[in-house]
Amino acid sequence: VVRAEVEVAAKSENQAKSLMEKIELQLNQRADMLTIEAVMPTLSDPTKRVVSCNMHLKIPHKNTVTVTSSFGDIHLSKMHAPVTIKGSNSRVTVAQLSGDLVISTTVSDLFLDEVSGSATISNTLGSIEMSDISGNVTITNSTGSVAINNSRGSATIRNSGPIEVREHHGPVDIDNSNGAVLVRHVQGDLS
């Protein structure tokens, strides 16, 4: 099930309707993948603009998922398969995931809760908050905070901002070039 919600702004209701009619939701299926894209018209009139476009997808929870978004929030929950997220200028929320997770974002804040599986995260200019994580975690972040609470597995963190690790079971490797580091209640090697 795919549902799109689009908000536009224009001088008149007729101009807004005309703009809405030019927005397309494209579904493309290849051998092993379905791609869904919101295609926006090119706008030259500064009085017309797309304010927001939100897509809501309901898919089987065992499907492998890749999400790409610019200037749009990403919320993903209750998945039991690998997930890849690529984004910029986004707020990313992942909850109740059992499967490997790969995130590559810029200017984005990340919130992860109840993730079991390995997590590889690369982010720039944003914060990362993780809780209830079971699996090996590798984080590369710059100019943002990293907070991990109640996690299990190895944790490797490279950052140039504040780092906080609490209630962790497993080895922790931290490399921080410019920020405070707070580590509490870690059961495992710390380097």
Description:
This protein is mainly beta and about 190 residues long. The protein has one helix at about 15-20; strands at about 1-10, 25-30, 35-40, 50-55, 65-70, 75-80, 85-90, 90-100, 100-105, 110-115, 120-125, 130-135, 135-140, 145-150, 155-160, 165-170, 170-175, 180-185. Strand 2 and strand 3 form a beta hairpin. The chain is elongated. The mean pLDDT is about 90.
Write down how many β-strands occur, each being a DSSP E stretch of 2 or more residues: 18
Strand % is: over 45%
Mean pLDDT: 92
**Tally of DSSP helical segments:** 1
pLDDT < 50 stretches = none
The percent range for helix content is under 10%
List the strand order in the largest sheet. 5-7-9-11-13-15-17
What pattern of helices and strands is seen along the backbone? Answer: EHEEEEEEEEEEEEEEEEE
What is the makeup of the main sheet? 7 strands, parallel
The coarse overall form would be elongated
Class derived from helix and strand content = mainly beta
Task: Fill in the keyword field for this structure.
single chain, 191 residues, mainly beta, 7-stranded parallel sheet, 18 strands, 5% helix
Short description:
Helices cover 5% and strands 63% of the residues. With 191 residues, the protein is mainly β.
